[in-house]
Amino acid sequence: MNSNPPHHSTAISGDLPIRSSKPMRPPTLAETENPPCEDAKPPTMSATIEEVPEDSPPKPNPRVGAPQTKLDDEVALRAGEIMASVIHKPRRRKPKSKRGLGKPTGFEEYYADGPMTPAEHEESRQTYDPSYPFEQRIQEALTRFQWKRRMENDRRAIFFKYLQYGGVDASQNYGTGVSPKELKQMSNDEARQARSQTMIPRDRQEQEVNFEEVARGFLSSYYANHYNPDSQESINIATSTIRNLLTYLLYHEVCPEYKDNILKARRICDIASVELWKNVQLVQDGPGKFNESCSMLFGGRYHGSGQDTNCWIPAQCCSDGNLTPDAARKVVKFAIAGTASHEQACRFQALVTKGNLSAKQILDIDGFEVTSINQPDDDIRDFHHEFAPDLPVVGKIKAKSFRNPAKPDIDMTPAERKSWQEGKAPKYDFEFFLEEELLQNCYPGLRITSDIWEINCGVYYFDEIISAYPSFHKVLANDLMMRWKTPREIVEEKPNILEMQVEDVPRLEADDDPEEDKKPDHITEAVKEALRATGLENEADEVDKE
Questions:
Q1: Which of 24-33, 360-369, 477-486 is the most confident on average?
Q2: Alpha carbon separation from 386 to 86, 313, 334, 376, 393 (Å, rounded)
Q3: Which of 7, 261, 359, 468 is deepest in the core (most CB within 10 A)?
Q4: Residue 228's beta-bridge partner residues?
């Protein structure tokens, strides 16, 4: 008899059996193909699999119509024992700083609050009854919003700064000292109040309510200046957080009297998510090769950089992106020849021939505001492709002068100030040359803070871009109130005459105190008494002398 176990093939061959309407009879052992030998050993398993115990549990009764064999029962029994022997290792807990990351926060792109039941709608209607004061309703809405949303550190910082900008006090944390165990023992209302971190001061309840103006001022002025975002993700965090709060107010009808104003504020958030990112890219890539070349040659931030050969012959631009004076002359010459008007190009050529090209800075303005954008046409593209294929194609933007209201007033005489207040301040219209790749980040209403220069041939250029503001730019006095602290009365304390007299008396050291020597030494007295008690009078006298 062969000692090796029989081999069972797992290949599928032959015709598939057709199931009849009658239940199939279980096949007998004789009818099965390749019946196992009684003396054959069970198939060997891997060394990592535990041995089957001798006392096997009773086998279940075969189902009617399901063919089974002795080998099938043994394999199934082994599989069950193997699965039962698997030991599940305990999962390693995450640190507290990383717990909850990746879970739904309520700020996802397509997140929406679920529909309310009739009972929830009735509760919401009673909570935000229009007969209640606006301050009470908005305070309750902010408390519930913080309870319903999970905010990470970056989003939480933006959220509370936005509330502070709008006049809400978010400096005190009313949930400090409340443990999770204590929160579980509280009701929902008590837990919401304990976790809330916002409060509307009473002295601000009479101020004007305007969601649109607050969104304009915060996103265009305070957020752009203080946070200095450098990625589209950080901008989306700020805009989506504010928009989510405004949507929550609309969904629960917290303040229906300000519905139109809230809708305008949400529109500002949508515009900000696009324009703020364009501003970041424009500041990083600006002012462009043409403006940088003019600044290097005529005056500005880049004036005097590089080695000047004072020659207007064509030169190749540096491969690393840096400009040399020779390459800067080439950039200026071909940009004016291809994009400027015929009059400007002729005057530029005449001044170059005479060597009288110069530029002067336009004073008393902070920058410019874009009014229109002119993309380069096919003629300009063909010109650059034929004569300057290594230079970018240049287009135009038209702009007007801009004065930043956030900056202090210009120093002027009383007569000039009166003239400016009457609307007679000088106004300028500009036409700048800008590369095509930078024109993609420009839009009407864009405000750029930069120094503006005029070449004596009638061409303008702007220097390094200091800052860029969106089309909805608004400066509010709320910027000055972000670090405001309520003043308190200073009470002048009267000096205590007795304390002054005590401080004037010089203190004696322990060695210099004359009374210290007169105090009895308790240890010495105890030693002398012990010596006298034992009859040693002479020794006691010696101790006294010492």
A1: 360-369
A2: 75, 17, 11, 15, 12
A3: 468
A4: none
The pTM of the full predicted model, rounded to 2 decimals, is 0.67
- Reading the block at residue 518, the tokens are 């007169």
Residue type for 336, please? Answer: I
pLDDT at 270: 95
Return the DSSP state at 78: H
Under 8 Å CB-to-CB from 519, ≥6 apart: which residues? none
- The Cα–Cα gap between 276 and 271 comes to 8
Give me Rg for the CA atoms of the chain. Answer: 44
Residue 158 near residue 241, CB atoms below 8 Å:
yes
Q: Looking at the predicted structure, is the pLDDT value of residue 319 above 80?
A: no
Which tokens sit at 478?
Answer: 């709320």
Q: Residue 2's pLDDT band (boundaries 50, 70, 90)?
A: very low
Strand order from edge to edge, sheet including 367-374:
359-361, 452-455, 460-462, 429-435, 394-402, 367-374, 447-449, 467-469
Kindly state the tokens that stand for 301: 């931030």
Of 78-87, 117-126, 405-414, 489-498, the range with the lowest mean pLDDT is 78-87
Task: Classify residue 360 by its DSSP letter.
Answer: E
Query: Cα separation of 42 and 54, whole Å?
Result: 13
Q: Which residues face 400 on adjacent strands? A: 369, 429
Q: ω before 287 within 30° of 0 (cis)? A: yes
Q: Is 193 helix (H, G, I), strand (E, B) or coil?
A: helix
